[in-house]
Structure formats: C-alpha cells, structure tokens
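Section 3.1: Structural characterization of target chains.
Under the original work plan, the team committed to producing a structural model for every single-chain target entering the pipeline before any wet-lab resources were allocated. The record below documents one such target. The sequence was received from the expression subgroup and is listed exactly as submitted; it comprises 344 residues.
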Amino acid sequence: MPADGSRLVTIRRRLISVPVLFLLGLALLVLVPIWLPVALIYDLVRAPRRLPITRLLLFGLCWTWIEIAALVRLTFAWFTGRGGNVVHMTKVQRWWATCILNALRVTAGLRVEIEGLDAYNPSPVIVLPRHASLVDSVLSVWMVIGPAGLQARTVLKRELLVDPCLDVAGNRMPNYFVDRDAKDPSRELDALQAMTTGMGSGVAGVIFAEGTRANPVKRTRALAKIGERDPARAERLGVLRHLMPPRPAGSAAMLAGAPDADVVVAWHTGLEGMDTFGGIVRRLPGFSGRTIRYVARRIPRAEVPTGDAFTRWLDDTWLGLDREVDAALTASGETDPTAAPGTT
C-alpha cells in the first residue's frame, strides 16, 4: 500500500516526479556541450585542484540515467508479474545502489572500506547506522543488500517519496515511509513494529536512529528539545561530538516486532560535512579521492534491555560510537566541520 495511504495521491505524485526525472536526464545529456565547459571554467578559477561543480554535475548526469534505467526495470517487472516479488525487487535495489556508489567512486572519488561485515549474519538483525551525509543513506542500505546479501526493510522519511525510484520500489517492498511530523506518533510506531514482525533468516530491518543528518544546529536543537522533557538525559548526551542524539522510540518499536533479532550498530568516517549540497561542494575531495571507512559491530539481543532501560542503553551505545568516530578521525588526521566546538 502506498505510504500516504491514498492511491490517487500516489498517482498524482508520480505524474509529476517521473516526467520531471526524464526531462532532467534528457536536459543534462543534451546540454552537456554547454554546461560542461561552463562548469570547468568556473572550477578552474575557483577550485582547480578539485573541480567540484563539474564532478557533481557529472554525477547528476549519472544519477538521473541510473534512476531512469531503474524505473524501466521496475516497469518491466510490473508487466511481467514480478512487481510484488521481494527477491526480484531486492535485486533491482541492489543494482541501483551499486550503480550509485560506482558513480560516486568515478565522479567524486569516494571509495568504501568495510570492517565487520560478518556482524550482519546470522540474521535477522536490526541495523542502527550513523547518519551524517546525503551519501550514507544509500551506503548503509547497500551494505545490507549488497555485501551482507540480505533483504532490507528500511525506514525512510516520507519526503523521499519525491524520488520516483524510491517511491515505486520502496512501496513494493516491506519498507515504511515515516511521517516525522505525524500528529499521532503511535500510528507510526505501530507501523514500524508491524514492518519487522515476522522477519526471518536473510532479512534486516534498517533505521537511522538519529532521525536526521548531523550538524551543529540540529544537534543543539535536538538537545534543547530533549532538555525540556528530560534534563538529565540532555546533559548526558551533551558531550556528543559528531553524532546526533538518538531517538529511541522507532528503534524500540522495530525491536519489539523482531524479538529474536540481534542489533548491528554501524559508524563511518569520510563523509563529515557532506550533510548538504553546499557541504558536498566544499568537502568534495581532490582527484586522489577519499576512503569512507564503514565499521559495523554486532550486539547480542540478550544485551539489549527493554522498557525504560532501552533509552539509557541506546544513549550509552551512541556515546560509544561517538567516541569511536572521534578516535578514528583523530588517528586519520581528518576534520569534522559539524563537530561540537573544541573537537576534531
């Protein structure tokens, strides 16, 4: 069922998003002789060692045609009766995510180094990854459906329905597009629990426990909001340097739906400061590239408490991840422009 519950709304949305995607892809392709030299001249004046605008526009060209190709595959799957086949949909999703990451490697110089891949198996598992960038949402799901070889049930923000591929494929799979501004949060939490209910071997539930990408403004705002309800918790999480305070309700709901699932927590470095388009332009590496270090760790379910103790456990786990990220950045000499003042 469509995430917004209305078939008519879904049709209207796709009648806009799909043609816009095709027009954008066609425009980027046909106008290459115009925008490419203009972008190159601009970059040669402003950032000749990185050429960020040129490379991002080239990635945009790749992205639109990867999306178009994926929509063609999804349409063919629907015509051949495989539109609701989760195994086939996962193959299409894996192909899409792999192509996106390959495009990032070629155009942006971003490469992935994986540690702890064995943490994802045996399954089922609930995966709680760090969320710091526009890139890591694709990366974290690719880890599950690609290298780990699992099917993913993913929590996505409803705003992502504007992406026609995520809209079509996401609604054909047991994912959930959460309304972060819902007037009735219990309905959203019930949906998350239902999404993970019945997960068996070969399946992972994925949720970004922070709820949004990290940056100083969002971190300060989140801590202030927590402080209104629980000053002690806000003080405890106030030492976070790189991560956002976690939101426990969604993760707890997913764990309640999968009582036998272990937890996988994951952090990464290499994408700091890339939480916005402007940040990507400023932080895009030179032609030597940059390695994204992605580290996963498994936590047995017996070590994960329930009830009120879960929030404290998640906070402590997140504080530990934050320290690991800080240590990794210090050791590598990298900087994090979104870090709290006086840190790496």
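The longest helix spans residues 52-79.
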